[in-house]
């Protein structure tokens, strides 16, 4: 197989995979390869997610499709599987799909070398979990959009009984303070106005006795950086310092993704979540006291083994009590190797469908209510891209709502906007007329 000259990276799953995908693209570019569309590339990197069964199976169907399309054009691209499926399944992927390269989420700095090895005719696999080793080997950030991701923490020690992340991403580890500040400055130099700090448990970040709030306060001082966000947080790592930062730090946006998963204490215990319904609700009270306009977001799993209708009703009740601005909800998916996969009383598919539908109806209702309540507000919008209509631009509100407006402003600008209408998936805005002082 000749060494590839062009590449395409396709990322699935969470924002940390998006970040990793960007870094892989930067690595391949630094190695002399040129980015191309998936249908033309000599090397296709599938940066995969293992969180639910469907996500995992998608990898195999994608590989089949890529090969089929390429074969019809007389091509046979090199295929590399990266990300969490690579970590979880390693050599099995080579056995099942005959791919050329398998590289885990902590080893992708070796991707160029693995690709060369594969071009020389050997299947190459690297799923070492050497935490943080990759960061020192990645090129400096050069060009990014106005809203950029920055991974500060990796891995998870929580071992929720349904979840593969502790196995695919390894133990909790924090990048050092100085390395993060350096990368944040490089991102701002490369065009970022907003940075979202990422970690599987981002609020567990710590370095030399500093917590995430200290990092946020340091990043707040970088000239040109207008907005900070962080995700995903665990309720038990929400320190008072971080709550206070939501009150004090102007660049820290009033939005918090704080997954709860379920509203029943029995289910939460079986999930090994180590918080209760009540401790979660009291935590939200403290956060809202510090930052009354904060928009809350969450993740929910319905149909965890043994979940009864009454326990599911407790999840609906919790949703009613919180009023989420947005949320993600999933059917429980048994994952090989996790304790919940072999628990008794797996919930029947019909009950799963019914509960998911009812939960999503409640979450959609609350999202609509939140967006409708925003109409009449004036707020800064960070312009992120062009819309479909001429002169239309799309951006985000401080509360992470998508807003469309007609403006002469360009990508990366912050404009003051009156929110005038809530559409199903976004808000319409009108730019404030700028009055000269
Ligand atoms: N580290 C983050 C994200 C983990 S994965 C966190 O702890 O919040 C994102 C979401 O996927 C989880 O919050 C959970 O709601 C969902 N999830 C994880 N494992 C799952 C499984 N086996 N079945 C269905 N949903 C799952
Ligand atoms: Fe998975 Fe739980 Fe860790 Fe989140 S906290 S990554 S759900 S084990
Ligand atoms: Fe998926 Fe791995 Fe992220 S399993 S959700 S890509 S950490």
What structural keywords apply?
437 residues; alpha/beta; Rossmann fold; pyruvate-formate lyase- activating enzyme; OB fold (Dihydrolipoamide Acetyltransferase, E2P); 6-stranded parallel sheet; 14 helices; binds S-adenosyl-L-homocysteine; binds iron/sulfur cluster; binds FE3-S4 cluster
Unreliably modeled segments: none
| Top-tier CATH class of the largest domain | Alpha Beta
Shape: globular
CATH superfamily of the largest domain, by name, is tm_1862 like domain
Radius of gyration from CA coordinates = 22 Å
Small-molecule binders: S-adenosyl-L-homocysteine, iron/sulfur cluster, FE3-S4 cluster
Helix percentage range: 25-40%
CATH-scheme architecture of the largest domain = Alpha-Beta Horseshoe
Count of discrete domains: 3
**How many individual helices?**
14
- Beta-strand content: 15-25%
Mean pLDDT across all amino acids = 96
Task: Quickly give the structural class.
Answer: alpha/beta
Task: Quote the CATH topology of the largest domain.
Answer: pyruvate-formate lyase- activating enzyme
Largest sheet: 6 strands, parallel
Walk me through what this model shows.
- By secondary structure, the protein is α/β, with parallel strands linked by helices.
- It folds into three domains: 6-126, Methylthiotransferase, N-terminal domain (Rossmann fold); 135-374, tm_1862 like domain (pyruvate-formate lyase- activating enzyme), CATH 3.80.30; 378-435, OB fold (Dihydrolipoamide Acetyltransferase, E2P).
- It is built from 14 helices and 21 strands.
- A six-stranded parallel sheet has the order 2-1-3-4-5-6, with helices on both faces. A five-stranded mixed beta barrel has the order 17-18-19-21-20.
- Strand 1 (6-11), helix 1 (15-30) and strand 2 (34-35) form a beta-alpha-beta unit.
- The protein is globular, with a radius of gyration of 22 Å.
- It starts with 5 loop residues before the first strand and ends in a 6-residue tail after the last strand.
- The model has no long low-confidence stretch (mean pLDDT 96).
- The protein binds S-adenosyl-L-homocysteine (SAH), iron/sulfur cluster and FE3-S4 cluster.
- The site of FE3-S4 cluster has 14 residues, from helix 1, helix 3 and helix 7.
């Amino acid at each position: 197989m000749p060494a590839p000259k062009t590449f395409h990276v396709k990322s699935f799953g969470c924002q940390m995979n998006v970040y990793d995908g960007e870094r892989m693209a930067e690595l391949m570019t630094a190695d002399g390869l040129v980015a191309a569309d998936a249908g033309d590339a000599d090397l296709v990197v599938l940066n995969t997610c293992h969180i639910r069964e469907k996500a995992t199976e998608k990898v195999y169907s994608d590989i089949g499709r890529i090969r089929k399309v390429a074969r019809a054009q007389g091509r046979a691209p090199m295929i590399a599987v990266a990300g969490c499926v690579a970590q979880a399944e390693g050599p099995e992927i080579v056995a099942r799909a005959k791919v050329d390269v398998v590289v885990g989420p902590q080893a992708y700095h070796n991707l160029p070398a693995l690709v060369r090895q594969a071009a020389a005719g050997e299947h190459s696999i690297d799923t070492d979990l050497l935490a943080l080793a990759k960061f020192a080997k990645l090129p400096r950030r050069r060009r990014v959009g106005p809203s950029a991701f920055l991974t500060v923490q990796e891995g998870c020690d929580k071992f929720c009984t349904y979840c593969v992340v502790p196995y695919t991403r390894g133990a909790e580890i924090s990048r050092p303070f100085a390395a993060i500040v350096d990368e944040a400055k490089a991102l701002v130099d490369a065009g970022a106005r907003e940075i979202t700090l990422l970690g599987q448990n981002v609020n567990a970040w710590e370095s030399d006795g500093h917590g995430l709030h200290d990092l946020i306060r340091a990043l707040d001082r970088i000239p040109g950086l207008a907005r900070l966000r962080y995700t995903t947080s665990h309720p038990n790592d929400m320190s008072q310092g971080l709550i206070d930062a939501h009150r004090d730090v102007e660049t820290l946006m009033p939005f918090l993704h704080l997954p709860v998963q379920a509203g029943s204490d029995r289910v939460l215990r079986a999930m090994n979540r180590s918080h209760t319904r009540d401790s979660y609700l009291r935590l939200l009270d403290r956060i809202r006291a510090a930052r009354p306009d904060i928009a809350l977001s969450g993740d929910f799993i319905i149909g965890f083994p043994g979940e009864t209708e009454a326990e599911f009703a407790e999840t609906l009740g919790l949703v009613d009590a919180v009023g989420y601005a947005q949320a993600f909800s999933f059917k429980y998916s048994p994952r090989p190797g996790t304790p919940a996969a072999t628990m008794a009383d797996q919930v029947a598919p019909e009950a799963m469908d019914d509960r998911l539908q009812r939960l999503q109806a409640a979450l959609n209702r609350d999202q609509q209510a939140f967006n409708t309540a925003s109409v009449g507000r004036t707020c800064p919008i960070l312009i992120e891209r062009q819309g479909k209509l001429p002169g239309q631009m799309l951006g985000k509100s401080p509360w992470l709502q998508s807003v469309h407006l007609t403006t002469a402003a360009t990508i990366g600008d912050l404009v003051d906007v009156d929110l005038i209408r809530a559409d199903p998936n976004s808000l319409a805005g009108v730019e404030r007329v700028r009055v000269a002082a």
